[in-house]
Amino acid sequence: MTDLRETAMTSKAWPFEEARRLVKRFAKAPPEKGHVLFETGYGPSGLPHIGTFGEVARTTMVRRAFELISDIPTKLICFSDDMDGLRKVPGNVPNRDQMAEDLHLPLSKVRDPFGTHESFGAHNNARLNAFLDSFGFEYEFASSTEYYTSGRFDDALLRMLERYDKVMEIMLPTLGEERRATYSPFLPVSPKTGHVLQVPTLERNVAKGTIVYEEPDGERVEIPVTGGHVKIQWKPDWAMRWYALGVDYEMSGKDLIDSVTQASKICRALGRPAPETLTYELFNDEHGQKISKSKGNGLSMEEWLRYAAPESLQYFMYQKPKTAKRLYFDVIPKAVDEYHQQLRAYPDQDASQKLANPVFHIHGADVPESRMVVPFAMLLNLASVAGAEDAQTLWGFIRRYAPEASPDTHPDLDAAATFAVRYYNDFVKPEKVYRMPDDRERAALEDLEARLAAWDGPLDAEALQSEVFAVGKAHGFEPLRDWFKALYEVLLGASQGPRFGGFIALYGVDETRALISSALAGQLAQG
């Protein structure tokens, strides 16, 4: 462990770079609270989504890296802003008319449209907890409503009242003229309607810990800022939370850069240093547009998990968080195969390589063994030519290729076979376009079929790949990739595909010969 810690202190893997910033933060003294606090935030106005997963997964990676290079204990809080007022009715819930009646109430007071929990906030919080628990994340859940109403934020709220003018000096220059005229960091929770009110603060009494505001009906009301009688506006609220809890690290998306800037200034104005922060790039859909919950574009959490195991998504999230990435269905096969490549590489790597390997940051030091003896991309091609409707069809080929494999001994391969059939039928099959070979390609395919007819060697992927290469060279394909492109387009109905020798070994020599014969007879292109 000592050697690993020393190596981690110079590792260029981004979680260690982030962790070393935290180590530097506590170079003079450990935190007074006795632990380093990591935080992720969640707005329960909607269901947990892929961005929620990414933020918790990436924060956990930094936390794990920090724990390797420091002995200071850590905690991770997943904070739900369930005291925020409901501003609009989501489009993906039942009983929308009922929800419309509850506009402006705190999410923890909005009736649950699904009828399963005491409030819409509670419903989404339960979904969030189940969501995070299903991935095995270690975290402590925190509810904004509970923290406000129980008094856990009281000292921080009184401090914000005391530093009101400094908070306003920070916020007002960032607002438009109309907004500046009515802005206040304090949002009263009306004792009449329960609504979270966007109204100006008319008077402040620091000694009493109260503010005065005007109700929509014109009545002036004095309320304490403590005990859940007010909710703080978003940017000051973030800062107040950092101050109250002593948050040391939080990451957020590029769209919140200004929020981080202002919240950091406010946190310092309240009297504590702002946390270390990381700004990550946002995901784009297949058209290069930013993924949006309201638009519903891109790829959802549930959709990824329909076609691949969660570890592949964690692998995808690990990659270059400061670089914008396209998040769509066609990135899944590559992520699955690269994840398993890294698993296979891990045991033979030295300490420096292991700490740079994404699987270390997904699993920690307890990295599992990959049992994927057939790549996911190959399973997709097998599903294609076999017309597979279930994983059992694929296992008929897998057992011949890898006799030692079975669903019991290779559960990740068995799961991948099921995922591959789903992915093939949903995405590959509708897009398949076969073509007829030209004269040179036809001659080469006839040659390959003849060589396979004479093949008396084992089902060895490398030996078969060499034979396929030899055919391409013998028929003058230059570059050779044109030969393989022809194989994919004529035999598989796709523009790219697997190492063809491995495909023959998996699918079978006789079966590949029959596939070639069908293509030459025009049966595939007609279909």
Automatic annotation (TrEMBL):
Protein encoded by which gene: lysS
Enzyme Commission code(s) on record: 6.1.1.6
Organism: Palleronia pontilimi
Gene3D superfamilies per UniProt: 1.10.10.350, HUPs
Motif range ('HIGH' region): 44-52
GO CC term, one of those recorded: cytoplasm
Keyword ATP-binding: yes
Binding-site positions, ATP: 293
Main location: cytoplasm
Protein known as: Lysine--tRNA ligase
